[in-house]
Design a protein that fits this description.
Number of strands: 2
Strand content: under 5%
Strand order of the largest sheet: 1-2
Structural class: mainly alpha
Shape: globular
Distance between the termini: 45 Å
Length: 270
């Protein structure tokens, strides 16, 4: 299983790195995120049985795609419209539906899928468009560093359970190691390389800390979802890693953190 995990991880890193790096003739990163997001939200809808309601599932897929593409348009206009319609349309469907048994739950999960997958992934697309590829690499690589060190340290040294009622295998030792992993990897972005960012050591340490904490919180959120529906993995599409939802749980939270930091703090400091 570890061998499969490593092979799939290396293949994924190569694919996503290529998508982030090149943006001509198509915005390849947006294309990658859009495809991934549609597969992830479909996986979520299968877990919570929304996929049985074709109208809701179709709505969720379309609105997830619209959210992911929204940074390419007038962000200040499209996001309020998408948020409002994502909330209103499922509620209208609920009112007009003749049979309402279980409809409220399905409608709620449809909205959750759109916001959790579509809206949160849109921050990574916006980060690529507004700040450039290096910031996206920072978000992805520091999350990967956090997850990797947390996994191995927790596996070898973990004794104190972090959240046993949500994810029994996660430990405090792994969580702390994850913070160090994000910070250490983040420091490479202060070097004079093609991936360098205008960040000082203090900024990198702070941002690495935030990426790791919120990334691990995102992991726990997805673990809580899986426990709610009674599954160990969201899917088996990615050998050694589970499903598409399992691989985006940390990244989407980290992407939001890096985007907000870049837009609200880093530009002011610079």
């Amino acid at each position: 299983m570890l061998k499969k995990r490593v092979i799939v991880a290396l293949g994924g890193i190569l694919l996503i790195s290529t998508a982030v790096w090149f943006d001509r003739p198509l915005p390849w990163f947006t294309v990658f995120v859009a495809c991934y997001g549609l597969l992830a939200v479909l996986e979520l809808y299968r877990l919570v049985a929304v996929s049985r309601v074709r109208l809701l599932a179709g709505f969720g897929l379309v609105w997830t795609l619209l959210f992911i593409l929204s940074p390419h348009f007038d962000y200040l206009l499209t996001i309020p419209l998408l948020l409002a319609s994502a909330m209103v349309l499922p509620l209208v469907w609920l009112v007009l539906r003749p049979r309402r048994e279980g409809a409220f739950t399905s409608g709620t999960w449809a909205i959750v899928g759109v916001l959790y997958v579509g809206w949160l992934l849109s921050f990574l697309v916006a980060l690529r468009l507004e700040a450039g590829r290096n910031w996206v690499f920072f978000a992805l690589v520091t999350t990967f560093g956090s997850d990797t060190l947390a996994f191995f340290v927790g596996w070898v040294l973990g004794k104190h359970r972090l959240a046993p009622s949500i994810s029994p295998n996660k430990t405090w030792e792994g969580a702390v190691a994850g913070v160090f992993g994000a910070v250490i990897v983040g420091l490479f972005f202060t070097l004079a390389t093609p991936l360098g960012l205008p960040l000082g050591y203090g900024q990198v340490m702070l941002l690495g800390l935030l990426v790791s904490i919120f990334g691990q919180l995102g992991d726990l959120v997805e673990s809580l979802l899986k426990r709610k529906v009674g599954v160990k993995e969201s899917g088996n599409t990615l050998p050694g890693h589970g499903g598409f939802l399992d691989r985006m749980d940390s990244v989407v939270f980290a992407g939001v953190v890096v985007y907000l930091y870049c837009v609200l703090i880093a530009r002011i400091i610079v």
